[in-house]
Amino acid sequence: MYTSVVGMRTAAITNRLFLHQRHNGTFRVVTTFESMTSTVKRPRCIMSTTICSQQRCFSDIAAGAGTTSGTGTGTKTPLDDSLVSNYKSIPTALEVARVGGVWALTSAKRDKLGELKAALTEGQETLDDVATEEELLDLYFADGLNLIAKVTDTASDTKNTEFYQIHDNGTILNEFSTWLDNQLDPSLPDTVSKSVLESKLEVASAKIDNLLERLPTDQCLVSVRDYLDPAVVDREDKQNNISSNLDSNDTFNMDATSFQDAVSHFRLLLAKSAINQVLKSWKTLTTVSDADLDRAAVEGIALKSDLDTLSLSKVFAFVQKNISGNCSDRLTAAWNLLDRDGDGSLDQEEMNEVVHLCVRIEQEASQALFKEALDIFPVRAPLSAIESDDKPSAPQGWRQRRIEKIAKKNLVQMFQQSCKKHFEVEVEINHRLRCIYSWANKADQDNKMKSVLVDDHGWSGRKRYVELSPKISESEFREVQEIHFTHLNRIGSETITSFRENLWVLQGKGRERKELLRNSALFLSAVSLIDFVILML
């Protein structure tokens, strides 16, 4: 497999097929709607009467000034007739990008990438063309992890029903899925206490550890740098009208056993991460929101703020979606897990927790996969090492071991920073969720704030007014999310693509430092030579 993959890499580099100009698609992480260079040069707002009025409207809605204030110019239609009375037009992605002021369309990283791309010379089509062999290994490493995450994000590995019969790793996933279904006893209550849930999930986590041993990392992740999405090469080939030298034997086969083992390994890590996050989020999952408490008080229902039990079937269904589903399926399962009353709608805080829960699971599993793949192959091995069928030996000398250790430490820290900052800072997840809630056409309470009088059960016996915000259903959430927050459909590849762009920035700054030192040395040498000539005269 190494020979064919290296031939594909060599031919691809020769033909300059690696034109990594990311757009809003499978591998795009930046939230802009244009290429990097056009984003840097394009003004944020066109100063006209119409646009200015729209900008004020978008800003008011985005800030959460009210669910009924403002009008938009979107063209979407309501989901059903019940929304017509208070239907608001949802702004399109193009309108938000044109007006600006909603979320940032540029950042320091994007500006830096634009500068590095502008500095490319003739014949250099991408930043990969100016990378050294060691830097290419890091970029190829990110490409391999990205492809694994992409497959799990879209569930392209489990869509085919024959998958479980053809691949041994499919049998492993099917074995765990069947085992998990058998853990539900219909004769017992579905709601369980914290201690019971912990014991059951600990058994499930131990089961996952046993299955992970049947997919050892030294077999499925050793060739992670060889994994390259063939669709990327084909798409860039068509976009640039370049004739490819790739033979059919040089095209990476995504049905290869090692790659499918890597995907299944990552799915097991996702399931284990889901179990860990559920246990850590017990208080959040069992705490009733203040709005639900007020609604229950109005209806005369006594409701405790903290529940003692959780639905076991919903927890297992959430774990199942991490084994076989895509990002959308996982979000739906998490939505059902937070939906305690079963009406299909959540408060804004619960909606936010659903999204953050899915992101935390993906990031925890991605970091575990990153460390495992990093330890299985020397980071600073020569690029020619991927041509050999034998795994390169670990560095022997103390200096080589130190360089290897520092390189791994830096890569791990950089990936952790990418996981921490990408959604929080670059994507602005909290602000996007506020906009989704404000722009959604919520049927609950006719999409209006509702003032209710609640009895205070304290010693004073007073009553108080509270403002109840409308709840949002998953379909209403999806209506806006599919326009303005498509990152949730590719959480894993979003984070890894951000890490790859950080590698580009780091490598570019390193080249700039070397060029600065070289120019400084040349300048000092020239000045010294001139002084010497003057003194000799």
Automatic annotation (TrEMBL):
Keywords: Calcium
Positions of the EF-hand domain: 326-361
InterPro entries the record matches: EF-hand-dom_pair, EF_Hand_1_Ca_BS, EF_hand_dom
Statement: the UniProt record of this protein carries the keyword Amino-acid biosynthesis: no
Molecular function, one GO term: calcium ion binding
Identification of the protein by name: EF-hand domain-containing protein
Lineage: Eukaryota, Sar, Stramenopiles, Ochrophyta, Bacillariophyta
